[in-house]
Amino acid sequence: MPATTPSDAASDARYTEFLSYFSTDCERIHAYIFSMLPHHADADDVFQRCSLLLWKKFETFDRERDFLSWACGVAFYEVKNFLRTAQRDRLQFSEKLIELLAEDRAATLNQQPQRLLALRQCVGQLTARQQQLVWTAYGGATTMADLADATGRSAQTLYNQLTTIRRKLAQCVQMRLAVAGDDL
What we know:
Blueprint: H1 6-34, H2 40-57, H3 67-85, H4 95-108, H5 112-124, H6 128-138, H7 144-151, H8 155-183
Helix pairs in contact: 1-2, 1-3, 2-3, 3-4, 5-8, 6-8, 7-8
């Protein structure tokens, strides 16, 4: 087995450090990008390019700064670059709208862990049947049409129930965040 050189060890340490930062914030970086692009596929493409760019530029990252803020700054310019070069879509956000979305999203990034925790707790309060409907609609392998056939209910009935559940979850999350805000 070849001995590692100091350069290899430094490179490994830098890579480990980058992964530590990136793995903590990658979901929020993706959400930030998605908030400015109307299509999932576009957001995913930009996120992949941005991830590589963050690694390439990691040597310029100032450890005194917040990694998420730095990464979102890089992502902002990647989104702008994508929109400038992507002429295939008829719907294009204006540069001013992109800047407003970026500012709005940046202001709420740190709220996401609390919001996600509150959502998980609220989903846990749903009945098993309601949870099954939520998982089917947002991540299950079954389609709503298949679930309607399996349960003997119409797809429209399921969608109506899902709307009621979403409202209930939104109210629950808002209430939990308000209570958590009082505790801060």
